[in-house]
Design a protein that fits this description.
about 650 residues; D-amino Acid Aminotransferase, Chain A, domain 1; eight-stranded antiparallel β-sheet; 16 helices
């Protein structure tokens, strides 16, 4: 019997596993990097062991250090969570060789599915349909998808639409895969533009029982990473559902699978489906399956690892519907750039419990699986996911409405997040109609943009709240002289917003919004009547400049700008600045090179992804300050693109032709 579990992971999945262990009376052990020393999961464990360093390669990917930590803390079992070493067959075998219980599938099953090229061969032999490219790719095979053979989660994955791009994308994918999974092997397959990503949750015991615990639709993605997941899959014909479950069970039996795992499929518009991969561990999106079945998949993992039998021949049938969204520290309007900094506040009202599956009699509810809390730091070393928010209800429409409402009222301060995008997706007519596929966010790129009116009204509310906070008995901020308006300046996502208003006996006069009236103003709450409709704006200030404004129109983070700004250091035209902190992993430019706008010059690695930095304009590289291995901060000067000789000559020629 397992008495103490070391979780070889971090963040929300470590906390999720600890929750079940506490309920079962099992002791818990955390391992943590220096960057995670004060993270919530470390404090929640019964014991914690430091892994010196911050980079994954020095910490969570060090099998020897993790096993040594388990021995030092007296753990008798290891749960790998997801990511890191969770699908590493050598690690699983090393755990067993150390005399510890492995809460996962047999190393042989991990090895069989660990290299996707080999996995496809096994699945084809088992009669499971697969996608493949015969021989060298040609124009007829386009578009193509480059994928990491040893991993997933969007890392080491690139879409190729022109054959001339293939070598570059292969090199990028190899570097990204090596950093994330320790293997640079990649492969190429056809890219189905508008397919659906549907997966089947599997659970198998050592006694021969294999459960297909329903399916999930994970089609809404960005950068090939899932953003919204739900169970059951909407608009899926029963005949297709049955065939998917049968194919998933066949995949599990073909490799002697034991434990929890997921068979992932691509469902084409014509109804055909193809095996993508098998994740030989617990999925990020497992909560939606728990919410519609009432199962605790982690508890069942422990049961199976102890040699126990699943409680019945068939799993419970799904009841109702569940939807999960991933809350990321990222900026959708800026090509999903990951964000770093402090989570000053994380508050999602209405969440009944963290990590809990529905209890008997519960028909609807909200669940939060969070890796961070108020005050947590988000750094550059790990994935930018902050939390998963899950809603379940008797119907899909009710679940979507409940989840969108909770997110709309959530307060997530300190970092730019994808919160508002998630709300818009959940309320989008196509999503509500079940019309989802992997191109959803490509078809609707505006879903990531902040509403301009919402930002302007937030700036007005922030200015009025600031005036209320600074009000003195001598009417500070409130004037009888109408000729001189109050002026406040804020920055939002790099754009300056100037607020000009007057407060007179007749009320508010806002120059940009003549139809907005002030109902009340306090430092933490401003109520405006917008075209006759009252809107409440909640205000939270952090330090001297940062203001978070929460309202039904959306969440807006503003930076107050000084009234009389100091002259800023001049930045040369054509300067290429780092959009985020990270490590320079590749440089493909040199001083003197002639480049075109959009041409990739270098790559930054941050949060386990590589980000392409491109030339901002046509010209010639006059300065190059980035070197491979260099750590850079946001705003660091990487290169300068000056005018090329040809462009100068052309301008001079054009100038002489003018009358």
């Amino acid at each position: 019997m397992i008495g103490s579990v070391l979780v070889a992971n971090r963040g929300e999945i470590a906390r999720r596993i600890f929750r079940t262990c506490r309920e079962l009376g099992v002791a818990t052990v955390a391992v943590f990097s220096d960057a995670d020393a004060d993270a919530p999961f470390v404090h929640e464990a019964d014991a914690a062991v430091r892994l010196p360093g911050a980079a994954p390669a020095d910490t969570y990917l060090r099998a020897d250090l993790v096993i040594a930590a388990a021995r030092a803390a007296g753990a008798d079992a290891v749960h790998p969570g997801y990511g890191f070493l969770s699908e590493n067959a050598e690690f699983a075998q090393a755990v067993l060789d150390a005399g510890l219980a492995w809460i996962g599938p047999p190393p042989s099953a991990i090895a069989a599915m660990g290299v996707k090229t080999r996995a496809k061969e096994l699945m084809a032999a088992a009669g499971v349909p697969v996608l493949s490219v015969a021989g060298e790719p040609t124009h007829e095979d386009l578009p193509l998808l480059v994928k990491a053979a040893a991993g997933g989660g969007g890392r080491g994955m690139r879409v190729v639409r022109e054959l001339v791009q293939l070598d570059t994308e292969l090199a990028t994918a190899r570097q990204e895969a090596l950093a994330a999974f320790g293997s640079d092997e990649v492969f190429v397959e056809p890219y189905v533009e508008t397919g659906r990503h549907v997966e089947v949750q599997l659970l198998a015991d050592v006694h021969g029982t294999v459960w297909a615990v329903g399916e999930r639709d994970c089609s809404i993605q960005r950068r090939h990473q899932k953003v919204v997941e739900e169970a059951p899959a909407p608009l899926l014909p029963d005949e297709t559902r049955t065939r998917l479950h049968e194919a998933a069970r066949a995949a599990a039996r073909a490799i002697g699978y034991v434990g929890a795992g997921t068979a992932e499929f691509l469902l084409a518009p014509d109804g055909r489906f193809f095996f993508l991969e098998m994740n030989t561990r617990l999925q990020v999106e497992h909560p939606v399956t728990e919410c519609v079945t009432g199962l605790d998949l982690v508890a069942l993992q422990l049961l199976v690892a102890e040699g126990g039998a699943l409680p019945s021949d068939e799993p419970p049938a799904p009841q109702g519907h569940a939807i999960e969204v991933r809350l990321y520290a990222e900026d959708p309007a800026r090509d999903w750039q990951p964000q770093t900094g402090t989570v000053t506040l994380l508050d999602i009202p209405g969440v009944s419990a963290e990590f809990a599956a529905p209890r008997a009699g519960e028909r609807a509810g909200l669940r939060l699986d969070a890796g961070v809390g108020s005050g947590s730091e988000v750094g550059v070393h790990y994935d930018s996911m902050l939390a998963k928010v899950i809603a379940w209800a008797p119907t899909r429409a009710e679940a979507a409405r409940r989840l969108a409402g909770a997110l709309a009222k959530a307060r997530v301060h300190g970092l730019t997040t994808n919160r508002d995008l998630l709300v818009r997706v959940l309320r989008h007519p196509e999503f509500l109609a079940g019309q989802v596929d992997t191109a959803f966010l490509t078809r609707h790129p505006g879903e990531g943009a902040a509403d301009k009116d919402a930002v302007a009204l937030a700036a007005l509310a922030a200015a009025l709240g600031d005036a209320a906070a600074n009000r003195t008995p001598i009417a500070g901020g409130w004037r009888n002289v109408p000729a001189h308006p109050q002026v406040k300046r804020y920055a939002h996502e790099g754009v300056e917003h100037e607020v000009r208003y007057r407060l007179t006996r007749d009320g508010l006069h806002a120059e940009a919004y003549p139809d907005v009236a002030l109902v009340s103003a306090a430092p933490e709450r401003v109520v405006l009547a917008v075209d006759g409709v009252r809107r409440t704006f909640g205000l939270a200030r952090y330090g001297a400049a940062l203001v978070h404004v929460d309202s039904p129109l959306g969440a807006v983070a503003l930076t107050a700008l000084p009234r009389f700004p100091e002259p800023e250091r001049e930045t040369a035209a054509g300067s290429l600045l780092a959009p985020m902190p990270g490590t320079v992993v590749r440089v493909e430019a040199a001083v003197g090179d002639v480049v075109t706008a959009g041409q990739p010059l270098l790559w930054l690695e941050a949060m386990k992804m590589q980000h392409r930095i491109t030339a901002p304009t046509d010209g010639v590289v006059t300065e190059l300050r980035a070197t491979v291995g260099q750590q850079v901060d946001t705003g660091a000067l990487l290169a300068v693109i000056g005018e090329s000789v040809n462009s100068v000559d052309r301008e001079e020629q054009e100038g002489t032709s003018q009358p």
